[in-house]
Specification:
Structural class: alpha/beta
Number of helices: 10
Distance between the termini: 25 Å
Strand order of the largest sheet: 1-2-4-3-5-6-9-10
Largest sheet: 8 strands, mixed
Radius of gyration: 18 Å
Number of strands: 10
Order of helices and strands: EEEHEHEHEHHHEEHHEHEH
């Protein structure tokens, strides 16, 4: 399977609801679902390489195939932009994921559920996994938190806020890729081909006119709620996030870029000592956040999710 299928689910909100797009890989009726949720300014196609690797490894073993689902969080990719920009916050995204999982479960029952969350996608995962009694089809079995934790470094939040919402205008995908690399070099080494493949789903035409310039895929209004965050507010939110983390029952793997400015070594160490007592894997030469394209990054996730199932 070289391309995913594009699907939609309707999610309720304070307006008339919105459609969330999701990309599905693998066996559509598999009872084992891996939900991959992207970072703040990204979209579901970020997980193409990981999804293909997971499907290939599961399909070539006795597992019988898996279903890898990669949503475009509201306001990103092929999903609707929200009428109320204040809906661009983690609790609302978590509610959308519950709608998506109910939709997937109705299509074909889920018996095993895993979660891979990069940055914002990991925060959403903590909200979903850390609260008992949420209407999940089944509890999350394994949780991968990719370069994120309950405590976030304020300097990194400021860095991200400096470029968030600047949708840009580009004449070519390569021009857009070059511009994105200037703010994404912390993702670590990538070949030009890898970076171009990651960049292609990140842009859309500004208009339907032939030869239209390109812009970034997301609603610039996602910057609004983000920029309301203060250092004091972020510190206050840490206590709630640690409470959620301590409530996680899923077996947890934390991935950390060794040069990450968002997830500190101290926070990663604390995540090993409390709550689900996560295992931590670090990648040298990478900051925030690993893109899960490098072989060693894919292997860390695949082994964690699939190794025990193979035996």
């Amino acid at each position: 399977m070289t391309e995913p299928s594009l699907n939609y689910v309707t999610c309720p909100d304070a307006a008339d609801g919105h459609r969330m797009a999701y990309w599905q890989w693998g066996q559509p009726d598999s009872p084992h679902v891996v939900l991959c949720v992207h970072g703040l300014t990204r979209q579901g196609r970020d997980f193409d390489v990981l999804a293909q690797a997971l499907c290939e490894q599961a399909g070539s073993s006795s597992l019988g195939g898996i279903r890898v689902v990669c949503p475009d969080v509201a306001g990103r990719g092929e999903s609707d932009w929200l009428k109320d920009p204040m809906g661009y916050q983690v609790p609302a995204y978590a509610a959308d994921m519950l709608s998506l999982l109910a939709h997937l479960h109705a299509q074909s029952p889920i018996t095993t559920l895993d979660w891979v969350g990069t940055s914002m996608g990991g925060l959403i995962g903590m909200v979903v996994c850390g609260q008992p009694g949420l209407p999940l089809p089944v509890p999350v079995r394994k949780l991968v938190l990719n370069d994120v934790g309950p405590a976030l470094q304020w300097q990194a939040i400021q860095r991200i806020g400096a470029y968030l919402g600047q949708s840009g205008h580009f004449d070519t995908v390569q021009e857009a890729a070059d511009a994105m690399w200037k703010i994404s070099a912390s993702f670590g080494p990538h070949t030009p081909e890898q970076w171009l493949a990651l960049s292609l789903p990140m842009v859309k035409p500004v208009s339907a006119a032939a030869g239209s310039p390109l812009r970034l895929h997301y609603d610039p209004a996602i910057a609004g709620p983000f920029r309301l965050t203060t250092e004091e507010g972020a510190q206050q939110g840490e206590a709630m996030l640690w409470q959620l983390y301590d409530g996680i029952q899923a077996e947890t793997l934390v991935l950390r870029g060794a040069q990450s400015d968002l997830l500190s070594p101290q926070t990663a160490h604390a995540m090993m000592q409390r709550g689900p007592r996560a295992r931590v894997v670090e990648f040298e030469g990478v900051g925030h956040a690993p893109t899960l394209i490098a072989k060693e990054q894919i292997a860390a996730v695949a082994d964690f999710l699939l190794l025990r199932l193979r035996t």
